[in-house]
Structures are given as C-alpha cells and as structure tokens.
Amino acid sequence: MSLKQSYNYFRARCKVVGLREWSDGFNSDNIPSSIIDKSYHIKQGQITGIKLNQNDQEVNFPIVLEVFVKGFRDPYSAIETSAELVEDILIECLKATNRVTQGNGIKNITFESAIFEPISANNDNAVKTTINFRVLSILGL
To answer: For the whole model, what pTM was predicted?
Structure first.
C-alpha cells in the first residue's frame, strides 16, 4: 500500500458524486472560474505513525477535501447545493462497503468536520466547503 491510495480513494468517491478535481499541488486559491462549479481539491495532512510490527506500520493522517460550488443567480442556492454535495460525499466516503473493503491498506476512514464559507471576502457568490476526514492505513514493509 502506498499513501497515494488515499488520494485515489477520495478521487473515486468525488467522481461518483459528479465533481471535477483541481489538481494544483497545494494551492486552491488559484482555481479558474471555468471549473469552479462542482470541483474539489485534496490536501493531505501530517502523517502519524501508530503501531509498528515486523510486517507493517499503521499510520493515521487527515485528508481535507475542499469542494467549490458557484451560485449563479442566488448566492444562497450555492450553500444549499454545497450542503447536498457534502451529504453525498459523506455517504459515499463513509459507506462501509467503500471504506473498509479496499484491499489497498486503508483500514478506516472517519469524518471529523465540515465548514461552509464564501470563496473569498469579495465573492460570496461561490462557496468553498472544507471537509475533514481522518484515514487509518497500513503501510506494508
């Protein structure tokens, strides 16, 4: 198993709910307006070792999904659409048949929090939702 598998897992789940990835390495502030509606960005946080034995190392780390939705005529509709997308993402990511039967080293995925914000102080017509997950994974040695 590689840590890359966690990215692949979340990419697959986001694709199922109809999102497109903004694949800039670290920066989601420069997402173009042409793809800002129903797009996402993945970030991985600090990796922490949990348990080590002669065969593998268990690790725990945060994955942050930033989901972008544009409100076209009514800014509040972007919040409602974001809430629906977050619910769909949570269902898809946390479904037991998806998260614990991977065979790629992912042992578990848990939801921690989500927050809805305007994309910037100057643009409240687009919503950025930050969804925080925690991934428990096994690295084969």
So the answer is: 0.86
